[in-house]
């Protein structure tokens, strides 16, 4: 296969949609396929900023394992995709760099935090993009941009070379307009890597067909939906029934507590991870060396971290402080256990838990600017539970709103049961009429 793409075209497309922060210098037309990767995955000699100004100028000397494995498979890394700073967001508007535009309507967001990855997957032909999910950052943008997206089981893909957000939550996965790419490329990236011990204790991913027979729809997962999402989801349930899948409504009370617990756990972990960015080792380092060291550190952190990163450092430092940690951090860990138990209970009788991915379609940038931080945290209530449980989950396109914007639904399977999701995506693709965005460049 040869790659049918020129640098001029790549640049022109990027000028319109801003999916890439950094791009390859030339196109490798002999490569087997093209891919892109979220900009929190290190890529040798290609700037890696994780959406943050503090990392401008950082050129890693090594590839993340996920990127290395994609290259070994014959992939050509076209670019590094724009994202919310360190993954902190739901719309990619918290980027310190460029904000990607939704290919179905450039006045709207791509979702986040892997927004640039969803955008690239929707726009380029035969393209696959690596995303990272901590609390929903693969499924949310996949849903907003009308592509397939999957986060595998926590530990399935090595995190070596990932710029961590929350180490107990981060998962690397795939976004693509083609269902079959989920199976293909998660198999490429998965497996043991001595550089990430979490990846070394997993059962092997055997490539098998495993068809879905029954899904459980939690009643708590269909509350608070927009009219468009509700009707697309109900139509999709009818399609699933026609495909011979049993649909049953269940109670999953822990869903209501997952979102607040997540924001405690994720910010606690993030606040320690961000401690390393002080203007000494990575990225920005031109500072006033006559300052005392803590003043030197603060000067960088004040200038280059965005508001959301600062908010999360404050919140996460507070929730794990002596005197407060039992009330917040330890409590959130208990909630996490209850969520896992709830999934195990339901998945003992069903192949997957199913709900819409996001409660609304991709919002307009001017509406996002009116949202508070809490409004945007709340938008994640459907994607977060599977992320704190570490269960594999996948968003598939399931309809379009009256605004023409894509709508997705999210399947959550049991730990290590990716095959049931792969097969579901492939079966669904045969039934669903996917609309690709019109790209007239
Ligand atoms: N929106 C969530 C957050 O801001 C999830 C982001 C993610 O998965 N990186 O934390």
Structure description:
With 441 residues, the chain is of the alpha/beta class. It is 36% helix and 15% strand. Helix 3 packs parallel to helix 4 and helix 7 crosses helix 9. The radius of gyration is 20 Å and the shape is globular. The two termini are 23 Å apart. 54% of the residues are buried. Glutamine (GLN) binds next to loops. The site of glutamine (GLN) has 13 residues, from loops.
As for the CATH topology, it is Amidase signature (AS) enzymes
Instruction: State the low-pLDDT regions, or none.
Output: none
What radius of gyration results from the CA coordinates?
20 Å
List the bound ligands: glutamine
Biggest β-sheet description: 11 strands, mixed
CATH superfamily caption: Amidase signature (AS) domain
Please identify the structural class as seen in this structure.
alpha/beta
Number of strands: 11
Gross morphology: globular
First-to-last CA distance: 23 Å
Oligomer description: single chain
Number of domains: 1
| CATH architecture annotation name | Alpha-Beta Complex
Q: Which band does the percent of strand residues land in?
A: 5-15%
> What share of the residues lie within helices?
25-40%
Report the CATH C-level class: Alpha Beta
| Biggest sheet strand line-up | 1-3-2-4-6-5-10-11-9-7-8
Number of helices: 14
């Amino acid at each position: 296969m040869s790659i049918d793409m020129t640098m001029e075209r790549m640049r022109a497309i990027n000028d319109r949609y801003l999916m890439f922060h950094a791009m390859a210098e030339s196109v490798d037309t002999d490569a087997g396929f093209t891919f892109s990767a979220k900009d929190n995955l290190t890529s040798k000699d290609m700037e890696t900023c994780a959406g943050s100004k503090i990392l401008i100028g950082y050129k890693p000397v090594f590839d993340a394992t996920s990127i290395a494995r994609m290259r070994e498979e014959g992939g050509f890394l076209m670019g590094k995709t724009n994202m919310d700073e360190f993954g902190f967001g739901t719309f990619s508007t918290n980027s310190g760099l460029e904000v990607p535009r939704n290919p179905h309507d450039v006045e709207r967001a791509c979702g986040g935090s892997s927004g640039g990855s969803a955008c690239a997957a929707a726009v380029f032909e035969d393209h696959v993009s690596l995303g990272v999910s901590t609390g929903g950052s693969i499924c949310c943008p996949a849903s907003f941009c009308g592509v397939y997206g999957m986060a595998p089981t926590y530990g399935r893909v090595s995190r070596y070379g990932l710029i961590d957000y929350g180490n107990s939550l981060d998962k690397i996965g795939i976004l693509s307009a083609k269902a079959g790419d989920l199976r293909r490329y998660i198999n490429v990236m998965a497996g043991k890597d001595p550089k990430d011990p979490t990846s070394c204790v997993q059962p092997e991913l055997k490539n098998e067909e495993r068809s879905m027979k029954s899904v459980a729809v939690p009643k708590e997962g269909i509350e608070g939906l927009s009219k468009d999402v509700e009707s697309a989801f109900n139509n999709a349930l009818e399609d699933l029934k026609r495909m011979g899948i049993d649909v049953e409504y269940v109670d999953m009370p822990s869903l209501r507590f997952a979102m607040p617990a997540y924001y405690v756990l994720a910010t606690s972990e993030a606040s320690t991870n961000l401690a390393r960015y002080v203007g000494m080792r990575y990225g920005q380092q031109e500072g006033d060396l006559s300052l005392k060291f803590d003043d030197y550190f603060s000067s960088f952190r004040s200038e280059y971290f965005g508001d959301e990163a600062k908010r999360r450092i404050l919140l996460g430092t507070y929730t794990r402080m002596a005197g407060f940690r039992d009330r917040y951090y330890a409590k959130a860990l208990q909630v996490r256990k209850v969520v896992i138990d709830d999934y195990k209970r339901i998945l003992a009788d069903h192949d997957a838990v199913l709900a819409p991915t996001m409660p609304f379609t991709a919002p307009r940038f001017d509406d996002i600017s009116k949202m508070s931080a809490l409004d945007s945290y709340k938008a994640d209530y459907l994607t977060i539970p599977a992320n704190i449980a570490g269960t594999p989950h996948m968003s598939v396109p399931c309809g379009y709103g009256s605004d023409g914007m894509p709508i997705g639904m999210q399947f959550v399977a049991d730990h290590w049961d990716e095959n049931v999701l792969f097969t579901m995506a492939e079966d669904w693709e045969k039934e669903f009429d996917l609309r690709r965005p019109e790209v007239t460049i």
